[in-house]
Amino acid sequence: MHAAAKKIRMGFVGGGEGSFIARAHRQAAGIDGRFELVCGAFSRDPQNNQRTGAALGLAAERCYDDWQTLLESEARLPAEQRMQLLIIVTPNHLHAPIARQALSAGFHVFSEKPAALNLAEVQALHSVVISSQRIYGLAHTYLGYAMVWQARDMVASGVLGRVRKVIVEYPQGWLSTDVAGQGNKQAGWRDDPTQSGIGGCIGDIGTHAFSLAEFVAGQSIQFISAMLGSHVEGRQLDDDVAMLFKMTEGASGVLLASQVCAGEENPLKIRVYGDKGGLEWHQEEPASLIHRPLNEPMRILRSGVGQPWLCAAASQRMRLPAGHPEGYLEAMANLYGGLAEAILQGADDHQAPGVPGIETGLRGMAFIETAIANHRGNAKWSEIPAQLTGAANHEQ
Amino acid sequence: MHAAAKKIRMGFVGGGEGSFIARAHRQAAGIDGRFELVCGAFSRDPQNNQRTGAALGLAAERCYDDWQTLLESEARLPAEQRMQLLIIVTPNHLHAPIARQALSAGFHVFSEKPAALNLAEVQALHSVVISSQRIYGLAHTYLGYAMVWQARDMVASGVLGRVRKVIVEYPQGWLSTDVAGQGNKQAGWRDDPTQSGIGGCIGDIGTHAFSLAEFVAGQSIQFISAMLGSHVEGRQLDDDVAMLFKMTEGASGVLLASQVCAGEENPLKIRVYGDKGGLEWHQEEPASLIHRPLNEPMRILRSGVGQPWLCAAASQRMRLPAGHPEGYLEAMANLYGGLAEAILQGADDHQAPGVPGIETGLRGMAFIETAIANHRGNAKWSEIPAQLTGAANHEQ
Amino acid sequence: MHAAAKKIRMGFVGGGEGSFIARAHRQAAGIDGRFELVCGAFSRDPQNNQRTGAALGLAAERCYDDWQTLLESEARLPAEQRMQLLIIVTPNHLHAPIARQALSAGFHVFSEKPAALNLAEVQALHSVVISSQRIYGLAHTYLGYAMVWQARDMVASGVLGRVRKVIVEYPQGWLSTDVAGQGNKQAGWRDDPTQSGIGGCIGDIGTHAFSLAEFVAGQSIQFISAMLGSHVEGRQLDDDVAMLFKMTEGASGVLLASQVCAGEENPLKIRVYGDKGGLEWHQEEPASLIHRPLNEPMRILRSGVGQPWLCAAASQRMRLPAGHPEGYLEAMANLYGGLAEAILQGADDHQAPGVPGIETGLRGMAFIETAIANHRGNAKWSEIPAQLTGAANHEQ
Amino acid sequence: MHAAAKKIRMGFVGGGEGSFIARAHRQAAGIDGRFELVCGAFSRDPQNNQRTGAALGLAAERCYDDWQTLLESEARLPAEQRMQLLIIVTPNHLHAPIARQALSAGFHVFSEKPAALNLAEVQALHSVVISSQRIYGLAHTYLGYAMVWQARDMVASGVLGRVRKVIVEYPQGWLSTDVAGQGNKQAGWRDDPTQSGIGGCIGDIGTHAFSLAEFVAGQSIQFISAMLGSHVEGRQLDDDVAMLFKMTEGASGVLLASQVCAGEENPLKIRVYGDKGGLEWHQEEPASLIHRPLNEPMRILRSGVGQPWLCAAASQRMRLPAGHPEGYLEAMANLYGGLAEAILQGADDHQAPGVPGIETGLRGMAFIETAIANHRGNAKWSEIPAQLTGAANHEQ
């Protein structure tokens, strides 16, 4: 007799009506059927909170007024009923306070990025993560794509030779006009430093480009020279960033991120060149990984279950045969898969396999602070603090 | 106080270990969180059946030995616990027998295509569907894509003017060699007429091309002239089909479907041309709909929540902002969404809104039989039986 | 001391002001600098004729009133001054009469296609070509593209294994409205059977698709089943064609050609599939040849001087390094290069190496007549006359 | 009676056997038939020189031993026979000395870029150009593409609104290995500072990216922050460059140029974003200009004679109908067309309409020197000398 698989009980803080990202988390978690939603504190508006919970099938008593109540109440429930994993999808300034308290109360955490509002706060959170022995994951969703792992594997196994150049870009256009002033809530809190932190575009998407570059190249960005800009009247934070960088193993490159590239959607893209060839991947066409071996025809490695050219890490992140597109939700589902594995195995490490964690959070925040300081100063190059550079190589 | 949303209870026939399509159904149903799996008869192999159920978190007593037992046992359960929707993912020859009995027992049905093994059997099933007043859906997944609805809407609203040409193609390559002989189960039963019916490629994917053409063009294919082929030694059924066709409203076109186009993945593609412009859509890049207005620059309509150019039917089939790829599972999830709507609203019609139903099954089977007869005979043109041609315009 | 290279003296019949194709011929011939224009009878309008000649730098006395005068006058000139090659760029009905007389008078001929108005006339011309021992070339320009030769070479050398499927399409849109009625001269004579022959679209571009399919596949199209259409009121000839076909070595396929695919430009495209892989080439992106080897990643073979994967025939048709686009004029220049080689070497064969000749003309006309007869009749399949099928393999 | 058009008599310095660029110049000049080659000093190797001249049909007496002899001898010929335009296709260090002397002797000049080896030398040349009243053109071939002019026109006419971002990139891969050491002559002299100047990649292709950015954006690059690199052992000059920049009218951007992006061909690409939309153009697919208007579907403007959306400057640079690819040679032929117009009209200005001239040379050299100085120093930003910034807006 086989024991029936149990689902992991998860709760949400944030994600009331109209939240795109919370819905995406629930959809992603739903794909592989390993989670069930058991509680939430979705909104500070009690009506919104209750409506959201009801629509999601939650019992009213597990739809809590605020996150403190959620943590306290769930902690008192029997272990068999109690929430196991807390998903944090609030504005940025709440990420760290909630995460710290949840971890301390014994819950696993999966948090939207950034990990916190500034580097000191991430460092404090880091200590809590380490001591809690709970899983802490950070929703760097793009690192969940199968072909990103394929690219990383090909670099690591030497297919490109020695890496020389890394070009990563993320030119969005949705903040080309004053959408915050026109009532867009997502744009609104993102431009409020008390909720968003000191970085605008650089924090929102620059960190995605940064973590992707380090993840694929397998080396850390050490020195950067940055230019930030803000292009709409009344906007407080940056909406555009470009920088030159040098990496720890000798590669150099360029990072672009912008939210005023009018007309662009979400074209995160990375190119890596070594002395034996190059790789190119576009998030908007995630099934294709372009490989240009030196002096041979370019090849397009396509994803799909059973494709013989895929590495193990890529293969296990695919669900469908070639030609059946998988996308953003499936990439996020891969992160949820890593969380599920770690939780079910009772791992006492804080790091779920294949899921970006607190080290990625440290790196990202150091990147933001260093870039903004460099932009404001006169020095050409600034170094991302050395004690934090160990994290570019995420464990698998 | 808001009542908590209830999930729809679903069961599976078929889909033991290794079944791609059953897993895809479960993943698709999981995305929007409106279904819960409550029972199954996954495999005739008892071990496989129990293992599958256990892995899916089912209680052993609702993991039934065969589909007859499943139907009988579920029917005896209290209404609050009883399965509501049966998903049929068996080989083709079982689709109709199971569907007939499930409908008669009062269950809603969502069946893999084809609806049955031959036209007579689909007609018999059609009668049962009508009299049962239960929902019957057919997994023509490609009709769940948002941009397919956008294309259909643009044709219907006259953006292309009078439709003249429809070119639909579906060239796969996975049967280029004797994969059935090499142990591929999917390929094996598909080439066994007792399990698959008289059509090979034409039934498996030709019907997808056919239903897509009628759906988007908004008119029926009336006359066809077909050529079928079989290219691998020992293969019993066709692996390749091409045909010319004429439609009821005056358009003409070409339909290609093949499983021996070596190296191709799943590039279902449709082009429609009218006197005012043309449209083009590729399943492998489903977010883009190419529109070529006469004497104006070509435009690429991109999908995404909130894109102002999308029709209502397309918009409601999107989950993510532009540039966040959605794919095959999300298209199938759209069909599950239609099923959920219909079931929750207690619709007494057999047709779930936006979900292909038994009429699509009738059309598809008439198409298969007409094409094969035409291929074998000497007549240039054969007519798809007229009494069945009402179904090209799926209700929304 | 090296003798200075002499340029080949060429003359034109047709190509007065406003002729696109005549200008393209002169531009193509100019690229490699092996020809000089010495005479012409450009227009039956004497003013237009003289203006055209003057603009091209011709002396007035070699700008003749009509083609008969041109042939007679040039024949009387000393060999050192006399035209060597006549370019025929008139409407279709004049191609054969002029070519016959020019060949008989000892001139080499490069004619726009079709070779003549009907099959009997091509056969008569064929006899003259053979007996004249002069070069006769036909401007099937698309057979001048380097990557078409690369595709042909890969098929011939077995890279694809046994060829099973050939899909060739040529969907233009420029005749979607009554452009002839609106004064477009090119469209006007093309729709006049006395100038154009019995075929409209099938003759104008269907023959390009046909010759490309035979050229690349290395086998002849033997049986066809065709559907033609005409979509604009008052139009006399077909503007749209689709057909199924079977080839001499067992491959089957589909040919599409249309001039009412609104919004399309000039996307001639061919796909060939064998049991070991597939190839795909698009005229609008001529530098890329897509190769899909079975069970290996797809590859994009790019053209360019020195690319190590190119066959000799492709390499010698390139002028620029990879990434420097070559296009239609360069493809036509490759045909001029073949003519130059043949003329300079004093070849007594009628066939210039790499240049489609009278056999291609015979095949094309047999194709047109067979397709139209099939379309009008009740038979499913019609055979292209067997005695003409030797020409599918153009000599290199 | 119309007077016969005379061809412009041109001569070459440089371009012996094996020179790609000289052959490209001759092919480009040949397309529109407005030039005839009358003399040359092709190589310092007398055998090579004579063979080249003979192969090109030159009389031996106009195939000169060196460029000094060429200039002297041609100057003594009667005006009706004398060379009018000198094409300079030597290694870089000879560009300025030859150009100066040729202009002084009354010849028009079309020079490969760069104009000279350093800024002082360009300034000296600039004086000679001004005083000579002869045409001086610089082969910035990419500024000859029709769709580059279309892009420039759309920016200038406000289609994008206020320009905010310019991203220009030119990642080649051909110097990924030590091809100079392996005998590649083109690579060899390019890495010799005495022949090439102080810039490697930045001079060879960085200047193309630079001039394209200024040309399309219609504003000048004022401040730059640059990083250069050299990646192959023994290489003397840079093979890779990246920089941030700020423009005179408020736009900022990034410029990338590299010759060690292994596997890349020649993908010069520019993107420009304003507050109303964005534009994107790729040299390897030059017929398409992507336009992303804010809040409207993206559009692809395609080139071709008669396309109603093209501006006059783009239209007059097209030869063929849409879908008939034009490429690099046609872009260069557009520069030759501008030279021909200017020479035939006896313009006493030194600037041929639509042809980059000495001002572009000044800008390019100031760019090279500023970038290298910035790279070597500690300052974050360096300014391209202000007195030279007037040239970003090329006259049409």
Automatic annotation (TrEMBL), chains A, B, C, D:
GO molecular function: nucleotide binding
Domain GFO/IDH/MocA-like oxidoreductase: 150-280
Pfam families referenced in this protein's UniProt entry, alphabetically: GFO_IDH_MocA (PF01408), GFO_IDH_MocA_C3 (PF22725)
Domain Gfo/Idh/MocA-like oxidoreductase N-terminal, chain residue ranges per copy: 8-138
Record Gene3D superfamilies: Dihydrodipicolinate Reductase, domain 2 (3.30.360.10), NAD(P)-binding Rossmann-like Domain (3.40.50.720)
Domain of life from the UniProt record: Bacteria
Protein name: Gfo/Idh/MocA family oxidoreductase
Organism: Pseudomonas khorasanensis
